[in-house]
Specification:
Blueprint (H helix, E strand, L loop, with lengths): L4 E5 L5 H9 L4 H4 L8 H12 L3 E8 L2 E12 L2 H4 L1 E10 L8 H15 L2 E6 L6 H9 L14
Parallel strand pairs: 4-5
Antiparallel strand pairs: 1-2, 2-3, 3-4
């Protein structure tokens, strides 16, 4: 990595790179459809995220190249005295930069953004099959304090 890493909100032009990163692992390859042109469902989801002030789709860029992505959702809760939480989802880095600190920069950026938005908590989930990801998040200070459950519809 020769250039400085910059962070910005994703644009529609970034979608191909984003979906490519989402599909570029064992789990993602089973649930994503990276084909050109991209399925319209990705554009529809992007438009919904973009229009929601409590959702941010953030890309990490090295020069003009998108090398990382994450979605941050800000949610108000009645618990914790009406506090806000930030949920980090869909964190991926390009194969070309894995293991070079881009993921760490993405998560630190998200934590700072959560502070700016007045959140009292940052949360995320990772698939139990992603043991390396779990260790990565723990190194960044996250703790597995709750048992998460999901129901596929």
């Amino acid at each position: 990595m020769g250039n400085e890493i910059m962070f910005r909100m994703a644009t529609e032009e970034d979608l191909e790179s984003i979906v490519s990163m989402l599909a570029d692992d064992i789990l993602g390859s089973k649930r994503e459809r990276y084909q050109l042109p991209l399925p319209t469902s990705y554009l529809q989801a992007f438009e919904a995220i973009k229009s929601d002030p409590n959702n941010e789709l953030v890309v990490a860029c090295e020069g003009d190249k998108v090398i990382g992505v994450q979605q941050i959702t800000f949610t108000p809760y009645l618990t914790h005295q009406g506090g806000w939480r930030a949920t980090i989802e869909g964190v991926r880095t390009s194969t070309s930069v894995r293991g070079k600190g881009v993921g760490t920069l993405l998560i630190r950026w998200a934590i700072q953004r959560a502070k700016e938005r007045g959140c009292h908590l940052v949360q995320l989930t990772t698939d139990k099959k992603r043991e390396d990801a779990l260790r990565f998040y723990e190194r960044l200070g996250f703790e597995a304090t709750h048992e998460g459950l999901k129901l596929k519809l």
